Amino acid sequence: MKAQRTRLGVPVLLLFMLSGCGGGGSSPTAPSGPQSFLAGTWRGTMTIQPNPTGPQPATPVTGAVTWTFEVVPQTNLQTFRTTIQSQNTWLPITLTMATAMIPGNTPPAQISTQGEYDSPRGCRGTFGSFGNADANRIQADVTGVDCPIPFTGTVTLTKN
Length: 160
Known about the structure:
- By secondary structure, the protein is mainly β.
- It contains one helix and eight strands.
């Protein structure tokens, strides 16, 4: 009799354990960590003044620009991988750079972005910016060198 109860108890126990599986329920997901106000896509305009200290500086050029910020893990939400897509006719480039935020990771904050890119003019260019970031607006100065023309300017962005 005891063997019969054991044989009957094992399938019932397995049935009970498996009843919690499947059934179309949602699977557990990893908890999402804190998000940065800077992360995501920002759009606006960038005005560039080519050769600003030259004897005859060119006319400033304004064009659309998109900046996308991705948080670098384990940096206290203060370091970002930044992709810039410029439709400015003087500097029509897509580049990926690094951005740092100070003094903390909440708005208002100051941000510094810098890096290099392959210029459409056939050289390696440098790009940098420094400015202020609020919850929905970035205003920054830009500077760089492109084959070997220096440039300065401004960028104004709003968050999508």
